[in-house]
Structures are given as structure tokens and as C-alpha cells.
Amino acid sequence: MNINSETPAALEAILFACGAPVPFERLCEILGVNSEGLREAAAILKNKYSDDRENGIQLITVEGAYQLCTKAYVAEYVKKALELRKAPPLSKAALEVLAIIAYNQPVTRSFIEMVRGVDSSAIVASLTDKGLVCEKGTLDAPGRPVLFGTTDAFLRCFGLESIEDLPKTELQMAGEQVALDFSGEPENNNEEEKGNNNEQQ
Prior knowledge:
By secondary structure, the protein is an alpha+beta fold. The protein is about 45% helix and about 15% strand. Helix 1 (about 5-20) packs across helix 3 (about 35-50) and helix 5 (about 90-105) crosses helix 7 (about 120-130).
């Protein structure tokens, strides 16, 4: 079904009311349009929001879903309105763990620690608390270790539509280069690495 004059406005209202990303299929069902019609309505909204001088919101695509969000240049005003404190930047270690997860997901904590050579449980927990990482089930192996992967919040933070948009890197080869040993936790190579167990997030 083709769109009508109300479709772009209806799409805007749905996304505004929902706040979170709404899958393409669900939007097509609600609006009574096919995928081509949905893309047409979305294009109209994107054009409407294209002028930064007149609009503070934008339409983004996140893993097969549309979402309305604020533009970066008005972020400080939004934070003041919501009384949000500026989040501290991620540490080098946290970015390293996040990259390992993003390029090799879903992965276990043991995998991350074998790649890095140090305990990373605190960093994984911190990234989970920040909503950048979440549990993706368990591995069919002794102990049923938890699998971790990135979230939609991770995609939004890094301006990605899907995980396939990550830039190419050698980290993509980590899964092939590192053999997992599910018989136990990875061992530290020396006493110095044990001191890194309390590595700051």
C-alpha cells in the first residue's frame, strides 16, 4: 500500500510516543504500508529534520528499526532539562574490551580475558551497567558461560546503523586466532598481571 498525506506525520507520532527504536515490520503493520512506503515516509521526515538551524531532532536507523533522537548540537540543553550529569569518557581498557566484544560477539568473558591477558570482569560489568553491552544467552559448554554482545545503545553512541558498519580491523580475526579453553578460567602469565585485576574502568 502506498503512503498518504498522513503517513509521515503518523510515523513521526509513533516514534515520538515510543521513544525506543521501533522495528520496520511493526511500523509497516501499524501504518498499513509496505517496506517501500515506509522508506518513503522516513525519507520525508529525514528531509524535514535536515536543517540543524530549525530542528533539534533527527530520524536514525538502528538494527532494522527507526528511532527519533536529539541532535548532538542541542545535547547540553537536553542534559540540563533532564538534570543529567555528563558521563565520564570510557577508559582505554573499557574501549578495548568493548572493541573485542563488538568485533567478535557473542563472546564469553573468558574469551575477552584470553585476548587481553588480564581479568576483565569488572570492565564487562561496567559496560553492562552503562547499557553498551548485554547478555546474549549462554554457550553450550561446561559451566554454561554467559555470552556478551553489544546493544542498540552502543550503535547509537557510535553512530552506526548496524554492527556490520563497524570499520574493518584486525580485531575481527581475534575469534580465529584465539582458541577458547572451556576447561577453566584463563591463567595469568605472571604476578604483574594479577595486579591488573583491579584495573580501572
